[in-house]
Amino acid sequence: MRLLYSITAVIILAGVMNCHAQDRLQKALNVYDYRTAVHVIDSLMAVENADSIGLALQKARCLRKLYRAEEAASALAEVLHIDQYNIELMAELAECHTQTGNTEDAFRLYSLLSGMQPDNIYFKICQARILYREKQYGESISVCMDIIQKDSIPEILSMIGDGYKNLGKADSALVYYDHVLARRPGHTSTISKKADILLAAKQYDPVIEMTRNHLEDAPDDMTILPIYGLALHLKECYPLSIETFEHQRELGDDSYSVYYYLGLNHYMMDNWPRAVKELETAYQIDSSDVTLVYQLAHAKSHMPVRTRMEDYSLNPESERLYAKALDMLKPSPSMMHNIYGSMAMARHRVEEYEEAIKYYELSYRYNPKNISALSSIGYCYERLKKYDKALEYYERYLKVGKPGSSGYKFVEEGIAYLKQEKFMEETE
Fold first, then answer.
1. In terms of CATH architecture, what is 1-89?
2. Using 50, 70 and 90 to split pLDDT, how confident is the model at 14?
3. In this structure, CATH architecture of domain 204-286
4. Engineering a disulfide at 172: which of 164, 357, 372, 373 sits with its beta carbon 3.0 to 4.6 angstroms away?
């Protein structure tokens, strides 16, 4: 009898301890204290006749919350042999594999689960995501198509659009982005992705309309504002683009792109002082963009420095920046031609004709098709009163120039003038 009482007491005590542990576990889970929860689960699993599958599943979920997915997978593997087709265990193990980057095993499990529950779209969604992350866009689209037959989820429609975009199928991507926007008209990421495609295709008007409509409801949307500003810039609506980027700056955005496009808009409007101001600020933020360096140099070249009352010389900062742009460049004939051409014109504007000739020669060397360099060199020699050299370059131009063009007529007039000047010199 005493033995019976002892056994009963032990059972009661074990039950009390178990209830206490379950209570501690629930309290830990309620406050997201997963570390404590794991310790409590381990103590519960040590008890005889414990629910090993249920506790292992709970432990795995806690470990995964703590980014200990490999330990979670091991805990699941220990009990999976008990019930190898347990859907909860398989799904949790697939989540663990996904977290650790073991996409192959994760995809295999999701495929098995999808076969076991064909109407469960969650497992197909997981398959589609894995395929997309692995850049298997065609396969991902195929799985997504199966999903939208059952439920046209905007996120899945967006994934299809992204897949087509990455495959270079812009028209198909736009179709699915439009499907998303029909369900979520103000979805900024979809607007942004659609705009990327349209801007790349130089379809500026639909981007302007789409972003402007969005900004009517959300005028301070910092995702859409720069897209609208860029589209206006590319459409050559420079004042409106300036207004947009100014608004963005007023909202607290002092990023590189804001100052760059403000400067570039003023640059395109020949507002050189303002262009220099904005581009200089962009340069202070990031001086690694060779295009910015070149544009800043070019803008500064339009602001010559006064040396005397009537004389001007090239802004030395402009020349330094041109030199930096050249140093930054990989040998690109077109860019070298543009830079040397700009350096030549900068010298030309301040009447430094010897230096201008040097740079015109270099520009022409990189692009012999730009025959206007020949007439410019001729004109510089004319201003230096080196008439023989001027005639040489003018005649070289006439050999390759198009008769009747404005450049051709200019050179013809120049030759006529020079021959008259030479005649006057010889008769004196």
1. Alpha Horseshoe (1.25)
2. very low
3. Alpha Horseshoe (1.25)
4. 164
Contact at 8 Å (CB) between 92 and 99?
no
Confidence (pTM) = 0.73
Residues 6+ apart with CB under 8 A from 217: 186
Task: Name which of 131, 134, 133, 100 is nearest 114 in CA terms.
Answer: 131
Domain ranges of the chain: 1-89, 204-286
DSSP output for 79-102 = HHTTSTT-HHHHHHHHHHHHHHT-
358 — pLDDT class (breaks 50, 70, 90): very high
Question: Residue 370: is its pLDDT beyond 70?
Answer: yes
The CA distance from 178 to 170, in Å, is: 12
| Beta bridge partners of residue 16, listed in sequence order | none
In 3D space, the residue among 182, 179, 176, 148 whose CA is nearest the CA of residue 163 turns out to be 176
Report the 10 Å Cβ neighbour count for 190.
Answer: 23
90 within 8 A of 96, measured Cβ to Cβ? no
* Residue 418 to residue 412: CA distance in whole angstroms: 10
Q: What is the pLDDT, as a whole number, of residue 422?
A: 66
